[in-house]
Amino acid sequence: MKRITSLFILFCLVVLPFVSLYAQDKMVAIVNNEIITQKELNDFLSFIRMQYSSQLKGKELEEKMSSLKQDLLKRLIEDRIMLQAAKNEKIIIEPDRVKDKINEIKKRYNLESDFEKDLAKQGLVQADLENKIREQMYTYAIIEQKVRSRVAVRPDEITSFYNQNKRQFVKPEERILTVFIFQDEDLAKTVSYQLRLGTKIEDLAGKYPFAQDTLSASQGQELRSEIENTVFKLGISEVSSPVKVDKQYYIFRLDNIIGSQQMSLVQSQDKIQAFLFEKKLQEEMVKWLNELKKQSYIKIFEN
């Protein structure tokens, strides 16, 4: 029995680490003369997670990562092909650019130790992050050179798109509001009551401490839900009850409603330009990548 236990311990100490190392170094794909290992795939996932973690948290982050996992190897292969193309073009990335990007990321953290802990949580060290950022910069540079710089939107394309899609370019109803901002809920309730009675703002300003501002709001324009639900129920000159947002209290008075209006071509052209440019860029990216793939040797190893 003791011998069996000893053999098991020996297996755990000697054999299992090699099994784990093998799993990490296992080939998942070959792209031209370069191998992609399972470790590189795992590091790539960790890098993407770290990028998204500045915008998403908890369940939203996990759902996003889950949706990306399915196409992760395909994306890594495409990135490797573009990286190889960048190196063939002898594109140079200055070390200071990578350092600046690392410093920008570090600013999200209170302490450098917090930054290092977050890296460790993703299974990365700073050198891994620097390498990924450098590769990303190579990719952006080759896309700029081979694709983005060749995409252009002509004025007649903008005009044609506008004429065919005028209904998309309607300025929604706009509400003009006066906003009163308070630190104290009871004070906010008092001023709201006084405004409803018709007391002049000037009289209230001399008596109570509050800040005042104006707000132009259209429905669906990323207002916080508690504010949108309040201001779009008000009639002209009507004053709302206090609305708590974070640690402050807000009162809204509706001053005017400007009805929806058809936007002109001049008002719409920047939005159309951006949309058409992005559409053309994506189409050209697909063509260019497909051409690179045709010229490349790609082998994927099934699990």
Account of the protein in words:
By secondary structure, the protein is of the alpha+beta class. It folds into three domains: 24-146, Orthogonal Bundle (Triger factor/SurA peptide-binding fold); 152-168 and 267-297; 170-262, Roll (Chitinase A, domain 3). Helices cover 58% and strands 16% of the residues. It has twelve helices and nine strands. The strands form three sheets. A four-stranded antiparallel sheet has the order 5-4-7-6. A three-stranded antiparallel sheet has the order 2-1-9. Helix 4 (72-88) packs across helix 7. The protein is extended.
Features:
extended, 12 helices, Triger factor/SurA peptide-binding fold, four-stranded antiparallel sheet, three-stranded antiparallel sheet, Chitinase A, domain 3, alpha+beta
> Residue-averaged pLDDT, rounded?
86
- Helix content class: 55-70%
How can the largest sheet be summarized? 4 strands, antiparallel
Spell the H/E element sequence. Answer: HEEHHHHHHHEEHHEHEEEHE
Count of spatially separate domains:
3
Morphology call: extended
CATH superfamily caption of the largest domain: Porin chaperone SurA, peptide-binding domain
Number of strands: 9
Q: Structural class from helices and strands? A: alpha+beta
CATH topology of the largest domain: Triger factor/SurA peptide-binding fold
